[in-house]
Amino acid sequence: MSYQHPAWGQQPLTPEPPKTGGPKWAKKRVVIPAGFGLFVVGVMFGAAGSGGTGNAASSKPAPTVTKTVTAQHVEPAEDKADDKPAKAEKAEAPKKDADGGEKVPDFVGMGLQFAQDAAQEKGFYSLKSHDSTGRDRMQAFDRNWKVCSQNIKAGKTAPTDNTLDFGAVKLEEECPASDKRAPEAVGGKMPDLVGESVNAARGALASGTSITVTDAADDRMVLMESNWKVCTQKPAAGAALTGQPVEFTAVKFEESC
Predict the structure, then answer these.
(1) Which residues pair with 250 in a beta bridge?
(2) Is 1 helix (H, G, I), strand (E, B) or coil?
(3) What CA–CA distance (Å, rounded) separates 195 from 110?
(4) Could you give the C-alpha distances from 236 to 50, 56, 134, 194, in angstroms and in order?
(5) Using an 8 Å Cβ cutoff, are 198 and 230 in contact?
(6) pLDDT in the model for residue 65
(7) How many helices (H) and strands (E) does the chain have?
(8) Does the predicted TM-score (pTM) go above 0.90?
(9) Pairwise CA distance, residues 44 & 56, whole Å
(10) Residue 189 DSSP label
(11) Which of 11, 141, 159, 168 is the residue whose CA sits 20 to 30 A from 20?
(12) How much is the average pLDDT of 135-140?
């Protein structure tokens, strides 16, 4: 191939690049911005929604159906209450004996606490007890005492508001042949208190009486007066009580004066 030098003032000729097998436009890339694609999709959906709205607006409204409901009559609650069966009347309390009392059980031989419980089960709630020996000891612990006598005979019907009085001794003691009560001053005269417990002798006198007690056998202090018995007394039995002091000598019950 021969090469010709260009004439003065003319541009040299540039050889053309060799031709390839495909068109020039095949090598170019078409770039679509992401925002433009979203814009197109939005326009498409907007058109579709607009078309649906137009169809809904052009459609005819649904007919309104009116249903008539007839009100039912309801009976008042108070009217129905009359239909309920009347409540059964309470069963009458069992009648007591003709005189309104109860048969008194036999309490003799029972422990004092057990006898009191049994009396309450029968409806007797007014209860008392005393020392059957006449020593005027207190029944501080009822379970340590047993019943020797009762003021209302067993088997007798008595009103339940009556007071039951039990004569009792300690469990290790024998019941006396007859119930003995503590002595009492009668008619303003000094009672015979020899042989009585100092405690019972004190109870037989007026509460304001001045009393002196000395040991007849030794120089011991008389503390538990229910365990001591009177050996001598001054004034003597039958003397008028005018408020004068009273003197006793005493020994323990198991001792001799």
Answers:
(1) 215, 230
(2) coil
(3) 29
(4) 137, 133, 21, 10
(5) yes
(6) 52
(7) 4, 8
(8) no
(9) 19
(10) B
(11) 11
(12) 93
pLDDT per residue over 4-44, tens digit each? 545 444 555 545 555 555 455 444 454 445 544 444 444 44
Q: How far apart are CA 68 and CA 32, in angstroms?
A: 64
* 236's tokens: 């003597």
Predicted confidence at residue 61, as pLDDT, reads 55
235 preceded by a cis bond (ω within 30 of 0): yes
- Best CA proximity match to 176, nearest among 150, 154, 148: 148
In order, the DSSP letters of 109-150 are TSBHHHHHHHHHHTT---EEEEETTSS----SSGGGEEEEEE
Distance, CA of 132 to CA of 146 (rounded, Å): 10
- The pLDDT tens digits of the residues spanning 75-121 come to 555 444 444 444 444 444 444 554 578 999 999 999 999 999 999 99
- What gap in Å lies between CA 140 and CA 148, rounded to an integer? 17
User: Tokens 């809904």 correspond to what residue?
Assistant: 56
Report how far apart, in Å, the C-alpha atoms of 134 and of each of 96, 176, 239 are.
Answer: 37, 10, 23
Q: Residue 186 pairs with which residues in a beta bridge?
A: 189
Cβ(169)–Cβ(145) below 8 Å: yes
Closest CA to 194 of 247, 146, 144: 247
For residue 17, the model assigns a pLDDT of: 52
CB 181 within 8 A of CB 130: yes
